[in-house]
Amino acid sequence: MSLLGLDLGSSACKAAVFTEGGACLAQATREYPTRQDYPGQAELDSHTVWRGTREIIAEVAAAATHDPITALCVSSFGEAVVPVSATREILGDTILCADTRGTEYVQALEQAFGQEAFYRINPNLLGPQYSLPKLLWLRDHAPALFERAAYFLLWGDCVGYLLGGDPVTNNSLANRTLLFDLARNDWSDDLLAWSGLDRHRFGPVVPGGTVTGTVADGVAAQLGLPRGVRIVAGGHDQCCNALGCGAITAGTAVCGIGSYECITPTFGPVPDPLAMLAEGLNIEHHLLPGLYVSFLFNQAGSLVKWFRDTFAAAETARGDADLYAALTREMPDAPTDLLVLPHFDPPQWPRYLPNSAGAIVGLHTSTTRGEILKAIMECTTLYFVDGLHGLARLGIELTECIAAGGGARSDAWLQLKADIFGIPVARTRITEGGLAGAAMLAGLATGVYATPAEAVQTFVQRERVFTPAPARHAFYQEKHARYRRLYPALAGVMR
């Protein structure tokens, strides 16, 4: 028996098949573009995402015929919903969190509840990036599509539904809609009443690890899957990352480096909600009962991809192998004096800044593209330092980060993070924590593993630990002080 993990990101989808012993039999990836036809727009073609997902499932399934897949589970990015019909058809495209539509509904929501009262129900910082503002925008600006949709499902659960499972929403993704009551672990009656949205259009809330059906026979035949593959509700990608990297106890944290980079601390009893709010931190269910997580995030991976496509366009067009590794080798060994304001898209944490923009400061004619790349990596990491200080004030002390995602393959980036944070950064054998976590959850749900600890012992082995260099940590503490002054200095000249 083998287990299929899927990880849907905002720019690519990935699949991997793992043996019960945690060995990867096959892995596949498909990228897809973001549609940005006008300022503020950020959409995915839902059919393109689904086509890519089907292709990667078929690709890895073909490599696992000798060890048949018995269960699958999906890790996915949050917020973005897909309108689907009762007959499992995709009806429209996906509005991403970076899309600025829906801001006016957030203002109305805050006026109705107030941030503090709202946070006590759904502990997120209000902003237009979540599902609710996009749904209200669709209701008022695309009413025909809105009325046709039987369900609005977030991508992780939408894949399960399109494969033949029940229409549900797992609780970690439900939290990203702004319609979820964390304490009740269910949809919020008050927030649904205010929005006028019908809870049945989101399906029931289920915990990650719930079996929601089996892959339909016809779909299984098309994708090369065995009959009877069980579909297991997954979770928000960072929650799956936490499980896949072994962060299953309070005090551990994962640094997931994909299109978005997200530091995900794990903790037990929920700290004082208003203290969490004051530090700009959200609260969300971990995949495991009794545990919670928070998110410190930015678009670090997207900025590195922008750098690649802009400063190495010719190499990108040629499809040069290991291009990221080649560009990283151009970076200087020493820290840079460049400052980058990583607001190329509006920041969404710790507060939404719709009128900000990116900047690179300190350029000279002698500046190399390697220095610019390193400065992007430095400053997208410095971005998190204030958040780590906030966690410490709440008693959530991080003594180590476990790196996951595509960026975790970069030795240079992980060493840089250790130097800036002043704590060790570990890399596991399987860097795709979302894929591993989804497969582990599929195994836990179907009895392959008796406990989370057994699944972690099977999948998670450390490959390398990067320790901070004291002299560089001291330099970056000083650079962080300069970095903190960058946005206030530039805010008055942006438009």
CATH class of the domain at 2-235: Alpha Beta
User: What is the number of beta strands?
Assistant: 24
Residue share in β-strands = 15-25%
Structural class: alpha+beta
Most strands sheet: 8 strands, mixed
Write the CATH homologous superfamily of the domain at 2-235: ATPase, nucleotide binding domain
CATH fold name of the domain at 2-235? Nucleotidyltransferase, domain 5
Helix content: 25-40%
The termini sit apart by 56 Å
Low-confidence stretches: none
- Coarse shape: globular
- Which architecture of the domain at 2-235 per CATH? 2-Layer Sandwich
**Separate helix tally:** 21
The chain-level mean pLDDT equals 95
Structure description:
There is one protein chain. The chain is α+β, with helices and mostly antiparallel strands and 495 residues long. It has a domain at 2-235: ATPase, nucleotide binding domain (Nucleotidyltransferase, domain 5), CATH 3.30.420. Strands 15, 16, 17, 18, 19, 22, 23 and 24 form an eight-stranded mixed β-sheet that branches. A hairpin with a 6-residue loop joins β17 (284-285) and β18. α12 (300-311) runs antiparallel to α15 (369-382), α15 (369-382) packs across α17 and α18 packs across α19 (452-459).
Please name the defining characteristics of this protein.
495 residues, alpha+beta, Nucleotidyltransferase, domain 5, eight-stranded mixed beta sheet, six-stranded mixed beta sheet, 39% helix, 20% strand
Topology:
Blueprint: E1 2-8, E2 12-19, E3 24-31, E4 43-44, H1 46-62, E5 69-76, E6 81-84, E7 94-95, H2 103-113, H3 115-121, H4 131-141, H5 143-148, E8 151-154, H6 155-163, E9 169-170, H7 171-174, E10 180-181, E11 186-187, H8 189-195, E12 205-206, E13 211-214, H9 217-223, E14 230-236, H10 237-244, E15 253-257, E16 261-267, H11 273-278, E17 284-285, E18 292-293, E19 296-298, H12 300-311, H13 313-318, H14 323-329, E20 339-341, E21 359-361, H15 369-382, H16 385-393, E22 401-404, H17 411-421, E23 425-428, H18 433-445, H19 452-459, E24 462-466, H20 470-484, H21 486-491
Parallel strand pairs: 1-5, 5-14, 9-12, 15-22, 22-23
Antiparallel strand pairs: 1-2, 2-3, 4-7, 6-8, 10-11, 13-14, 15-16, 16-18, 16-19, 17-18, 20-21, 23-24
Helix pairs in contact: 2-4, 10-18, 12-15, 15-17, 17-20, 18-19
